[in-house]
Amino acid sequence: MPVAIITGASKGLGRALGAALAERGWDLVLDARTADVLDDTAKELSVYGTRVEALPGDVTDAGHRAGLVAAARGLGGVDLLVNNASALGAEPLVRLDELPLSGLRRALEVNVVAALGLVQEALPLLRASAAGAVIAVSSDAGAEAYETWGGYGASKAALDQLSAVLAEEEPGLRVWAVDPGDMGTDLYAAAVPDDDDPRPEPARAVPAFLRLLDERPASGRYGATSLLEGR
């Protein structure tokens, strides 16, 4: 069975993608910071009959990252790494003139530094896979300028560039940065708590990720909306 590591997997997009992969027979290593919620998610995904390992922790912790990869190795390797865990830098979001530098550092640590650290940890197993792939969950805030989204957007822009360089350096892998589009997640609610406009469920974007895995297009940056067109 193929094996995927998914960070930020207890809720939202990470959980929805994990469910879709489990239904397809993937074994999973799931990460999130809240142990009880992650355990509940793992139990729910186990109904598909695949092996699901839940490791609560913070992706900025090198020991935790090593534990995630070790768990995947125990399941047979790493065929897919999904860097989905994200930090906003401020909750709710604020303008750059009010953004705490500690918050910006946290966003960069979670969204960029930890993502690279996990890639580095998993690279030997990804290279050994017949179809190794890395997915970096990006954002339109990394490509467009939106008021109050500066710190988060800067971290996602950095993640996009990191992914592009990784693709050049690792031509044997597929490396996709994916903008999932608007989603009704806890992260968005924390970012803009006064926004009452309903957002699509994260599961709406999952077929876009599955299309990448099925068709394996060239490494690059993709938007879920364009991937879903014609489907």
From TrEMBL:
PROSITE patterns: ADH_SHORT
Source taxon at top rank: Bacteria
SUPFAM superfamilies in alphabetical order: NAD(P)-binding Rossmann-fold domains
One function term, GO molecular function aspect: oxidoreductase activity
Recorded GO CC terms: membrane
Swiss-Prot/TrEMBL keywords: Oxidoreductase
PANTHER family, per the entry: DEHYDROGENASE/REDUCTASE SDR FAMILY MEMBER 7B, DEHYDROGENASE_REDUCTASE SDR FAMILY MEMBER 7B
Protein name: SDR family oxidoreductase
Source organism of this protein record: Streptomyces phyllanthi
